[in-house]
Automatic annotation (TrEMBL):
Claim: Metal-binding is one of the keywords in the record: no
InterPro entries hit by this protein: SH3-like_dom_sf, SH3_domain, SH3TC1/SH3TC2, TPR-like_helical_dom_sf, TPR_rpt
SMART domains: SH3, TPR
Taxonomic superkingdom: Eukaryota
SH3 domain segment(s): 284-347
Species for this entry: Knipowitschia caucasica (Caucasian dwarf goby)
Stored Pfam families: TPR_12 (PF13424)
Residue ranges, annotated region (Disordered): 1-47, 423-451, 1307-1327
Protein name, as recorded: SH3 domain-containing protein
């Protein structure tokens, strides 16, 4: 059995959700205590963020935190200062809603690689936790690059906040304490058992692999394993794989990204290569250096130098690598130079990690293409169709509006001047000839180059094949590189044997041919032919998995040239193949030596990256950069890895490296100045989108638009991506969602800096302004909407390429905004200027649109006659062009005008004609106007009492709104039907049906406050049915409403909800839960500090028992002990009077007569002080009844007579006459039975009989006649009168079918004296 909603605030788990508000019967005890525990929430609210952090760390000193508190705030401005308390309260309300329904926020944090634990709305804190160090790495990355706040803005911002955030620079701020996150990070690393860390000091470890100790210097990074089963810490050195142990080493874990990369790095890359030597003073150098010692080259790829030789750095010199590419200044020779043999001269530390000619972006946008697509989208969102506007101004606003009078002095001359300039500039506009702008700003592609084809002859041993080989030698004998060689180098072994060389039967024949060619070239000293043939032979051997033979050929290819290498692409291919073979053969020493040389080429020439077939060398670069703590080298390595995977369409591998690039670019260390960070964010956004990470994708787009380096192309690209993503949620012709407001505003601000003379830029700014204005108008922020339109008019150039229709449409829209802003005079001036600019004697559909809007403006100003003329002129134009949809709108406007003028018949006729026109339309797009007209016609029918027609109009509007998906119109139609069945044409079942539908619509809109009210209404409707099933339904609605009130922080509504649930439980007979809910309601009401609210709630709590048939005595403590003292203290006279009356009545029913006297007397005194006769009558009557019950006959008689003296004269209603009958009958009983005065009693009975006769109440007449017959017969001895009343009684008895009348003395002196009371008392029974 459900007992009520959860009462938790910040301490409850968010994933419990709304389903946690009800529990099984076995959990009732826990829920009974829950309201009492949570009611003190305001007292527990923390005032400072520091206290929240301390609470998260309130644990044993050596233990590690389990949860990370995220502190939320609403901030403003570039300094991100805390916003005002009103916005902070809005934030708390949003958090309460998320706490109740945590599914969406859980999904967001899942994308952010965190796990939601709980939400504390009052302290604005969200608690999250992590299950692996990779999650912490990702979470920290998202925090550094600014994703956390933007992800939460998507959850916390409603439409109004999105619109306000643009101008007021409102945003969500989120912060957390880094040391807590670091503590969780360390704990997770310890759990995983192995991690990488940096030594804090120089340390010695007992070696487990050699006789000596393992020595690690401060800053050295090694792999550590925590103790297991009492053993010490174990360590593995990354430079040579040596292992050691220590009891408690001093280490600090490396950052999470480094941790992830080193853990994912292959073993043969991770271990070996020795310790990086960084003797060169600059980590990332460009410029010129000087040889410090003599060096003789070991091969043609190296450069021989002498001391003091000046060497120009080709590309980059990175200090943690052994080689770099240099050019000897004196001779121009290029080759590899050892880093440890040069000294800095004219050298500088470079912040640019890119080489000359290197692609610096991943996603290249063509501005013209993006702008064209954006313009097409903006035009769809702002459709310049000439649709007439329907006058939707509420009637009360029309009645309140003053009549505007035109004055001779213009009120807005500047606006008129700008409009005239804008309208007159069209006469000088010339059609712009399309300019052929190339979409790609790149040189035209060269013709596709392909390798020549060589015929392979049969090789005969001992035969001279020189003549047959000359074409091949001629092609290959070139020291320098050409494009044909590039095609040759890229060929696979299969392609090599099938395309370049033909005429051979198998690869063995080809290999034999190339072997002969190699030997011939060697003999003829054709070194470059020999080198390239060795390379081709090596590739063929690799294809046949003959790696040792391939290694021999590749090594020969490196050593053959004598004059040095000039074809560095060939050298790169040779190095890369050799490195792969050494790696495959586990020749670590040779691999690292060859890899170092290959790295120097990657740092020297941009094209070398494209020649790599895998990422092993790139991972080696990143590993050495991490170990040497060279941030710029790490940047370069991450870029190379990202570019490598991007080129191979391995998008999932790109993300981590681009994220790292953005993290490094946000630090104070060397900046990523040479590459736009906005392009990095845009690349991430597209990657996230491909992986269906919606929230991260939106955050990336948001960061792209906010980045200082962003351009109009990148911002518009963000808009296009997001609009395409949301095309399933919104209709193609509707406006943008408000979440796109910052993007549109940024694009508009960027377009303002462009050359407005370019037609595209001006058109873009024009449509962006219109879309933003429509968005603000849609959410009733009319000042901002008008401001955008005024800015558009003022900033338009003197000559532009916009068409006449576009300019007029913009001005018409601006006029409509002024009408909605209750400025019809300004709108009329604008429309008059537009009309004046149109050609005379030549009507157009747009002129009809302007005339219709003029009619709306004039109607708003109270000039109905001119408004009718304009409407009629618009109708004439519609008839001319057979424009039925707009004709229907103009006809409806005419009907609404008649309605405002009070001409109901004319209004009904015109509205009916408009409905008929609308119903004949086949095309879509007019449903909203049609629904609005139907609703207005329905209201008119209902006001005239034509309920059947009104209901038909409402239902038609509802069906139309449902079919067209018009939520606002559907909501309005449902509200009207609900009201119709509630008041005008009561039908409880239909009212409940439409109330349920109304609730569903409100839930779709997300209006939580209105949803609460709808739930309360449904609860009351079901409560009024009174059945057990209806009461259960009422309880469910009450609990839902109560839960939402808790989430929204609506304390007074929450208290009412607890009380209402208690009342329903009382009606269901579950009395054990009633007092629990009442107690919860009382505590919540007390927490508000509103004394009036507390007083009303205590009285309502007492009413639950007062209006019940059981446990009525439980109402007394609420009235007497709790509510009455508060009413007395606050001097609330009417509350005191009401409470005293209820206490008197309750005690009278419970026979507590003595206790009731004081409250009855107090009620009388208060009634006298207020001077209200009805209250005085009630007080006198209750005093009389009490004295009568106490057998104080004289006082009872006195107060009854006082009551009768306050009755109106003459009597107007039958109820008043009946009251007379009962009171005089009661007076007669008192005097007859208690005072024993039959004579006076007879007098009271006579008055009662006269009133009963006047009323025609025969039962009362029978009773009174019987009493009078008894008195005259037994006491006054008047036989004649006794017989008279007896005969009358017999006659009345015969009419009422009463068989016997007893007027004996014993019968009449028995217990009687039914207390007569006022007609408004429940206890008084009809005789």
């Amino acid at each position: 059995m459900s007992t009520g909603p959860r009462r938790g605030t910040g301490s409850s788990h968010s994933h419990s959700g709304r389903s946690g508000r009800g529990s099984s019967e076995g959990g009732q005890q826990q829920q009974r205590e829950q309201p009492l525990r949570s009611s003190g929430a305001p007292g527990r609210r923390l005032s400072k963020d520091v206290s929240i952090r301390k609470r998260a760390l309130s644990m044993h000193e050596d233990s590690l935190p389990a949860a990370l508190p995220l502190l939320l705030d609403m901030v403003r401005g570039p300094l991100r200062l805390p916003a005002e308390e009103e916005l902070q309260e809005v934030l708390r309300g949003k958090l309460r809603a998320l706490q109740a329904d945590s599914e969406e926020v859980t999904a967001v944090f899942t994308e952010l690689s965190a796990h939601l634990l709980s939400i504390n709305p009052e302290d604005k804190v969200i608690f999250v936790t992590f299950q692996s160090f990779e999650e912490i790495w990702k979470f920290n990355t998202y925090s550094t690059i600014g994703f956390l706040a933007h992800c939460l803005e998507k959850l916390l911002f409603d439409s109004k906040l999105w619109l306000q955030s643009v101008e007021e620079e409102t945003s969500a701020g989120i912060s957390f304490q880094q040391d807590i996150l670091d503590g969780i990070f360390k704990g997770l690393l310890m759990q995983e058992g192995s991690f990488f860390a940096s030594c804090i000091t120089n340390q010695m470890f007992d070696s487990s692999t050699s006789g000596g100790d393992l020595y690690l210097e401060q800053g050295d990074i090694a792999q550590f394993e925590p103790p297991f089963l009492g053993s010490g810490w174990s360590v593995r050195c990354l430079s040579d794989g040596a292992r050691g142990t220590a009891p408690r080493p001093s280490v600090e874990p490396v950052p999470a990204f480094h941790q992830w990369f080193l853990k994912s790095c292959p073993e043969n890359i991770l271990i070996g290569d020795g310790k990086p030597l960084c003797n060169f003073p600059l980590q990332f150098a460009r410029g010129c250096c000087v040889a410090s010692e003599e060096y003789d080259a070991d091969g043609p790829d190296e450069l021989s130098v002498a001391p003091h030789d000046r060497i120009i750095i080709v590309g980059l010199l990175v200090s943690c690598f052994q080689w770099f590419v240099g050019r000897k200044e004196s001779t121009g020779e290029v080759g590899l130079v050892r880093t440890d043999m040069v000294a800095a001269a004219d050298t500088f530390n470079s912040e640019d990690v890119f080489l000359d000619g290197e692609e610096r972006v991943f996603v290249r946008l063509q501005e013209d293409t993006v702008m064209e697509e954006a313009l097409d989208l903006l035009k769809k969102k702002h459709n310049p169709s000439h649709s007439y506007k329907l006058d939707k101004m509420p009637r009360q606003d029309q009645r309140r509006r003053m009549s505007f009078m035109k004055t001779d002095e213009p009120e807005h001359p500047e606006l008129k001047t700008h409009i005239r300039r804008l309208l007159s500039s069209r006469s000088s506009e010339k059609p712009s000839s399309p300019t052929n702008i190339p979409l790609n700003n790149v040189p035209p592609e060269s013709p596709t180059s392909s390798c020549p084809r060589f015929s392979v002859p049969n090789v005969v041993e001992g035969k001279n094949h020189t003549e047959e080989l000359m074409p091949l030698f001629t092609y290959l004998e070139n020291q320098n590189y050409n494009v044909h060689y590039g095609e040759l180098y890229r060929l696979t072994p299969d392609q090599l044997s099938s395309t370049t060389f033909v005429g051979h039967s198998d690869e063995d024949q080809l290999a034999s041919f190339l072997s002969v060619a190699r030997e011939t070239a060697r003999k003829k000293r054709l070194f470059w032919s020999q080198t390239r043939i060795c390379f081709l032979l090596g590739k063929l051997c690799v294809g046949r998995s003959k790696f040792s033979q391939a290694r021999v050929y590749f090594e020969e290819a490196v050593s053959v040239p004598r004059e040095g290498f000039a074809d560095f692409r060939l050298l790169t291919h040779i190095y890369h193949n050799l490195a792969q073979i050494y790696l495959l053969q586990k020749n670590a020493e040779r691999f690292f030596l060859m890899a170092e040389k290959l790295v120097s080429l990657l740092m020297g020439f941009a094209y070398c990256l494209d020649l790599l077939s895998d990422d092993s060398i790139l991972k080696l670069i990143l590993k050495k950069a991490i170990l040497s703590k060279n941030k710029q080298a790490e940047l370069r390595a991450c870029y190379l890895l990202a570019r490598h995977h991007w080129a191979r369409n391995e998008k999932h591998n790109v993300i981590s490296y681009i994220e790292r690039l953005l993290v490094l670019s946000s630090e104070d260390t060397p900046t990523w100045s040479s590459m736009s960070t906005s392009c990095g964010y845009l690349t991430l956004a597209s990657l996230y989108k491909e992986l269906d990470l919606e929230n991260l994708s939106i955050c990336s787009f948001r960061r792209t638009s906010l980045d200082p380096s962003t351009t109009i192309a990148t911002t518009l690209s963000c808009v296009l991506h997001l609009a395409n993503h949301q095309k399933d949620q919104i209709k193609p012709e509707t406006s943008f969602p408000c979440g796109l407001t910052p993007f549109l505003h940024k694009a508009l601000s960027l377009s303002e800096f462009q050359d407005k003379r370019r037609s595209k830029h001006h058109a873009l700014g024009h449509h962006l302004t219109l879309c933003l204005s429509e968005m603000y108008s849609r959410h009733r922020m009319l000042d901002k909407a008008i401001e955008y339109m005024h800015r558009l008019v003022e900033s338009s150039p003197s000559s532009h390429s916009l068409g006449t229709a576009q300019v007029n449409s913009a001005l018409v829209w601006m006029a409509w905004l002024h009408i909605e802003k209750c400025q019809p005079d300004v709108a009329l001036d604008v429309l008059d200027l537009v009309l004046a600019s149109m050609p005379e004697h030549c009507t157009s559909p747009q002129e009809g649109e302007v005339l219709n809007l003029c009619g709306v403006a004039l109607c708003s100003m109270g000039n109905l006659r001119r408004a009718v003329e304009n409407y009629q002129a618009a109708i004439d134009i519609c008839q001319e062009y057979e424009d039925l949809p707009n004709w229907a709108v103009a006809q409806a406007n005419l009907g609404l005008l008649c309605l405002k003028a009070g001409a109901s018949a004319a209004a009904q006729r015109n509205l009916t004609e408009a409905v008929q026109m609308f119903s004949e339309l086949d095309a879509a797009g007019h449903e909203q106007s049609f629904s609005t007209v139907l609703l207005e016609l329905g209201k008119l029918h209902v006001a005239q009492g034509q309920m059947h027609y009104g209901k038909a109009c409402y239902e038609w509007a509802l069906l139309l709104s449902i079919s067209a998906n018009l939520l606002d119109c559907e909501l309005e139609a449902t509200s009207q039907l609900r009201g119709l069945y509630s008041t005008e044409s009561p039908d409880q079942v239909q009212c409940i049906v439409y109330s349920l539908h109304h609730l569903q619509l409100l839930q779709r809109t997300g209006d939580l406050v209105q949803t609460v009210l709808a739930l309360e209404t449904l609860s009351q409707l079901h409560l009024s049915l009174g059945t057990h099933r209806a009461l259960q339904a009422a309880l469910d609605f009450t609990k839902s409403s109560l839960g939402m009130c808790i989430d929204l922080g609506m304390k007074e509504k929450e208290a009412d909800g607890w009380l209402q649930a208690g009342k329903i439980y009382h009606l269901l007979g579950q009395t054990e839960l009633v007092e629990l809910y009442i107690q919860a309601a009382q505590e919540v009401a007390l927490s508000t500090g509103n004394t009036k609210s507390v007083l009303g709630l205590l009285e309502a709590a007492g009413d639950i028992f007062f209006n019940s048939d059981q446990d009525r005595d439980k109402a007394i403590p609420f009235y007497r002990d709790r509510a009455l003292p508060i009413a007395t203290k606050t001097q609330s006279v009417r509350s005191r009077l009401r409470l005293c009356n209820k206490l008197t009545e309750l005690m009278l029913r419970l026979s507590m007569f003595e206790e009731a006297l004081d409250f009855a007397q107090t009620a009388l005194d208060l009634s006298l002080s207020l001077g209200e006769r009805l209250n005085q009558r009630v007080a006198y009557h209750r005093l009389a009844a009490l004295h009568h019950a106490l057998q104080q006959s004289e006082l009872a008689e006195h107060f009854y007579l006082k009551t009768l003296a306050l009755c109106p004269s003459p009597l107007h209603f039958d109820e008043e006459t009946l009251y007379y009958v009962r009171v005089y009958q009661t007076l007669g009983d008192i005097v007859f039975y208690d005072v024993k005065d039959p004579f006076d009693a007879a007098g009271y009975y006579h008055v009662a009989l006269a009133a009963a006769v006047d009323l025609g109440n025969k039962k009362s007449q029978l009773k009174i006649c019987t009493r009078l017959a008894t008195i005259y017969h037994n006491f006054l001895m008047d036989r004649e009168r006794s017989l008279l009343f007896y005969q009358r009684a017999r006659g009345l008895a015969a009419e009422l079918n009463v068989k016997r009348i007893n007027i004996s003395m014993g019968h009449q002196l028995g217990p009687s004296s039914q207390d007569g009371g006022p007609a408004f008392q429940d206890r008084t029974q009809a005789p």
